Amino acid sequence: xxxxxxxxxxxxxxxxxxxxxxxxxxxxxxxxxxxxxxxxxxxxxxxxxxxxxxxxxxxxxxxxxxxxxxxxxxxxxxxxxxxxxxxxxxxxxxxxxxxxxxxxxxxxxxxxxxxxxxxxxxxxxxxxxxxxxxxxxxxxxxxxxxxxxxxxxxxxxxxxxxxxxxxxxxxxxxxxxxxxxxxxxxxxxxxxxxxxxxxxxxxxxxxxxxxxxxxxxxxxxxxxxxxxxxxxxxxxxxxxxxxxxxxxxxxxxxxxxxxxxxxxxxxxxxxxxxxxxxxxxxxxxxxxxxxxxxxxxxxxxxxxxxxxxxxxxxxxxxxxxxxxxxxxxxxxxxxxxxxxxxxxxxxxxxxxxxxxxxxxxxxxxxxxxxxxxxxxxxxxxxxxxxxxxxxxxxxxxxxxxxxxxxxxxxxxxxxxxxxxxxxxxxxxxxxxxxxxxxxxxxxxxxxxxxxxxx
Length: 454
What we know:
By secondary structure, this protein is of the alpha/beta class. About 30% of the residues lie in helices and about 25% in strands. Strands 1, 2, 3, 4, 5, 6 and 16 form a 7-stranded mixed β-sheet that branches. Strands 17-18-21-20-19-22 form a 6-stranded antiparallel β-sheet, with helices on both faces. The protein has a 4-stranded parallel β-sheet with strand order 10-9-8-14, with helices on one face. β17 and β18 form a beta hairpin. The chain is globular, with a radius of gyration of 24 Å. The mean pLDDT is about 95.
C-alpha cells in the first residue's frame, strides 16, 4: 500500500481534469480532484456550452425574418433576456450534476476548494492537506485583459453569461473565436454592436479567403467592424454609458465593453514555485511529449500547456495521460494533426487541416477549389447571404490538405470531413463520393475545376 493519500491528485475539474480523473480511477488508481469554482470547467460553465446556447438564441432573429418567405406570418417576436439566462443556468446546473455523478461513480474523491502545491507530492486545499504519488495540473485558462485607463469598466467572457440586462449598445474588443462569436450574438439579439480589433483583420491564423468572406458577411449584416483600432481609455459617464477613446483619436459611446483579447494559463497562487516544474517563454507550464513537467511527479494537460486550446484536445490529453500512467499497454499519444474546429458565430465558421498560407509556407504546390453560393434555405427567404467553401489539394499526391467553410451548421458538416482527412482522403476520393442532394454539403464533393492552381 502506498504511503500517499492518493495515487493521483488532479487540480482542476475541467474537461481534461475530469477525463483524466475518471479514467485513472477506472484503471484502479486512487484519485482525487480539486475544483474551486466551475465543476466541468470553462467549457461547461462560461465557455462552449452556454456560448452555443446564446448563439442559438441570437440566430432566431434571422429565422423569424426568413420565415415570411416560406409562408409564415409571425406577430412581432419579442425577446426576454432573463428567460434565456434562467434556462441557461438550469441547463448548466444539470450538467454540473452530471459531472459530479461521473466522478463519484468512478470512485474519484471530489474536493471543493482552492488547491495549492506545497511541494511535489503535497497539495493544500483550504485547511486540508493531501499527499499524492503524482499530481496533475489541469486548471485551464483565464481571460486576459490588458492594462489601460478605465479597465475596471469592462467585462470578460466570464461575466457576459450573467449580465443583469442586455445592453442596447455594445463594443466587443478582440479578433479571435470569442470576440467574433459574441459580436454575432449581441447583434443577433438586437444590440447595436461594434467589434474593434487592433490588427489588420480578425481571425488571425485562419485561411485568408475565409477571413475575407467573413468580413463582408458581418458587414452586410450591419455590424460595425473597426480594424487597426486599439483602445486608449474608457470613461464612465454620469448616465452609466461608457465613452471609449481609441489611440487614433476616434471615440465611441456604448453601454457595455466586452474584452475578448485572449486567455492566459490559470496559475496564480498555485504554488508552482514550490516544485521543480517550470514555465516556458510564453508563460505556459513546460511539458514533454507525455505531459510530464520538469518535475518528475507533476504533469500538466490542457490550456495550462502550450497546446491547441480546444476542449476535445484537453479530453484527449486526459485520456492519453491516464493510459500512460495506469494502462501503459493501451497508451497512444494524441495526434494533433488535422484537428477540426468551429467558430459559432452567425453564420458558423469551420476549418480543418492547413490554411492556404500554411500549405504554401510548407512548400506545397496547390490546386485550390473555392465555391460561393446562396444556400437553398435562403432563396425563398430573399436572403442574399452566401456560404463559402474551400478545398486545398496537394498537386503531387492529390491529398486534400485543408477544408474551410463559412455557412449554416458548418461545424456539423466539417466533422465528417475530419474523418476523411484523418484517413488520408485524396481529391479523387472526394470526386468519387456521391453527394446528398439537395444539400450544401454536396458542394464539397462536386467541386471539379480548380479556381486557382500553382
